[in-house]
Amino acid sequence: MATGTKDRKKLKEQLGELTHTKLLAAQQRQWDEYRIQVTPWELATYYDQI
Question: For residue range 20-35, what is the model confidence (pLDDT) as tens digits?
Fold first, then answer.
């Protein structure tokens, strides 16, 4: 996904407002699902500290 301001504006123009909004929402959901995952390494390393 484009990260620069110009790139984001261009992408928004190309996709249209609704599609752009839905794409950003989907990417946010995907990021949220990824960031809340607990890896086996984290469990092994930190479980005893909880």
Answer: 999 999 999 999 999 9
Which two tokens mark 5?
A: 């301001």
Q: Any idea which residue has 């890896």 for tokens?
A: 39
- Taking the C-alpha atoms of residue 30 and residue 14, their distance in angstroms, rounded to an integer, is 22
Residue 27 CA: distances (Å) to CA of 22, 24, 43, 44: 9, 5, 26, 29
Contact 6, 13 (CB under 8 A): no
DSSP states of the chain: ---SHHHHHHHHHHH-HHHHHHHHHHHHHHHHHHHT---HHHHHHHGGG-
> Which residues are CB-contacts of 50 (< 8 A; sequence separation ≥ 6)?
none
